[in-house]
Amino acid sequence: MRHVRFTNKHNRRMARFRQAGLYLVTSSIVSGGRSSSRIVAWALEGGTRLIQLREKDLADRAFCDLAHEVRGLTAQADALLIINDRLDIALAVGADGVHLGQKDFPVDQARQIAPDLIIGTSTHSVEEAHQAQALGASYINIGPLFPTRTKEWSEEFLGMQGLAAISSAVSIPFSVMGGIKQEHLPALIAAGAQTIAVVTAVTEAPFPKQAVQHLLRIIQSEGARR
Questions:
Q1: Domain residue spans of the chain
Q2: CA distance 63 to 121
Q3: Which CATH class is domain 11-225?
Q4: Which of 71, 132, 188, 214 could bridge 193 with an S-S bond, Cβ 3.0-4.6 Å?
């Protein structure tokens, strides 16, 4: 495995990433008729400092316009903004990072183009995790762990056993995602998860700000016990 050297700016961003705890991933189609920018604003008021803008159904121009708007909100709150899939839009709006799927822009080429960015990638197996680390990913996302409505998935969900196998195979940070609810948090944190990615636990909540505050309290409390 080749050694990837990261820039100081990247490392400062990743230090903030590791401290965030809660990782909100947007999806306007499961936001109760509310805009993603409104959900983000409430979430930031609630204390989250890590946002991924993920809008699979938006046209390019609309996604770019939304990204500019959300970049303004996150900058004002001193929060990190990760753009899903689109390296070009991440660079255009001055985001802090990009999250790439297995079929998206290659991680190693993204690293060459944007050395300062956080570059995350979705992984579903030990082999994919090994490859992501070797190619220069800043972090991997492990999932989907549990049944979820926000990702099409025809294979078995990874569950806690899959999390243990994949997380132990790499030395870079990881986030976890997929059907995560409040009741899953203690076991996930006990298993070493520090960055918990959620969608509907916040976007479908009647009061997203309060939902974020509640999740952060649990994450911080459970983390303090480890």
A1: 11-225
A2: 20
A3: alpha beta
A4: 188
